[in-house]
Amino acid sequence: MATEEQLPMVSIPSMNDTHLEEMLIINKLDAAISDSNVEVIAKTIDELLAHTIIHFSEEEKMMEEGQYPEYFTHKSEHDRHVEELKSLVKYFERTKDPKAIYAYSKGNLTPWRIHHIQTMDTEMATYLQAKTSKA
Ligand SMILES: [Fe+2]
What we know:
The chain has helices at 13-34, 38-65, 71-95, 98-134. It is mainly alpha-helical and 135 residues long. The chain is elongated, with a radius of gyration of 16 Å. Fe (ii) ion (FE2) binds at residues 59, 74, 78, 116, 120-121.
C-alpha cells in the first residue's frame, strides 16, 4: 500500500490531486485483495480503469494545448498502461483470482505509477508550468 508521503509531487496541483485520488483507489483495491473480496476487487479495478482513462486524457489534453514536444512518447506509455489494465479486468472476470491481481498490484501497478510520476509526469508538468508562467 502506498501512502500520501510516497506519492511524488509535480508542479501542477490538479495533477497531484488526480494522482492522490488514484492512489486511494489502488489502496482500496489492495484492501479488497487482502480480504479476497471478489466483488469489491471487480468493482475497484473497473473504477481504477475508468479513473485512469479520464486522468490520462486530461493530461494528454494539457500536453496538446501546451504543444509539449514529448507528447507521443508520453501518450504511448499511457496507451500501453490502459491496455494492460483492460487485460487485467478481463483476466479477473474470467479467473476471479485475487492472487493474480495482488501480483500485478505489487509488482507492477504501484512501482509503475510512482516511476511514471517521477519521470514523464514531472518533466511534463515542469515544462508546461514554465511555459504558462512565461506567457
Ligand atoms: Fe502521465
